[in-house]
Amino acid sequence: MDREDLAAALEQHGTDAACEAALALRAGATFSVWGEAALPASRFLSVWAWRAQCMAEDGIVTRKDFEQGLPALQRLGDAPVAMGRVDATEGTRLIFLSTDLISCVAVL
């Protein structure tokens, strides 16, 4: 997946986190996509929902992208998703994509 294709998929997703990641990509942020390692969305959901719960128990307010991204992963159930990341100076965004790498399905 090239930079432009990933940026376009993120822009179409339309959440704040996805748009921030797209802007970071266009500004030269590094990125990786692991399209060959698709796993069920529920597997990612269980890890990241647990992480959000731990943060809440520690008094840390979860980011808005957790509020948007976790329900998106939950809706997918056991459907496979590919994972990627965008590393910007503001932090790392985890990207979840359809297995054909055309659509962004969630961003954390």
Tell me the distance between the termini. Answer: 19 Å
Q: Helicity range of the residues?
A: 40-55%
* Secondary structure category: alpha+beta
N to C succession of SSEs: HHEHHEEE
Number of domains: 1
The shape is globular
- Spatially, the strands of the biggest sheet line up as 1-2-3-4
> How many helical stretches?
4
Q: What Rg do the Cα atoms give? A: 13 Å
Mean pLDDT: 89
* Strand composition percent: 25-35%
Layout: helices, strands, pairs:
Elements: H1 3-13, H2 16-26, E1 30-40, H3 41-57, H4 64-76, E2 80-88, E3 91-97, E4 104-107
Antiparallel strand pairs: 1-2, 2-3, 3-4
Helix pairs in contact: 1-2, 3-4
List key phrases describing it.
108 residues; alpha+beta; single chain
Task: Describe this entry's structure for a reader.
With 108 residues, the protein is an alpha+beta fold. The protein has 4 helices and 4 strands; from the N terminus they run ααβααβββ. A 4-stranded antiparallel β-sheet has the order 1-2-3-4. A hairpin with a 6-residue loop joins β3 and β4 (104-107). The radius of gyration is 13 Å and the shape is globular. The chain starts with a helix and ends with a strand.
Summarize the structure.
With 108 residues, the protein is an alpha+beta fold. 48% of the residues lie in helices and 29% in strands.
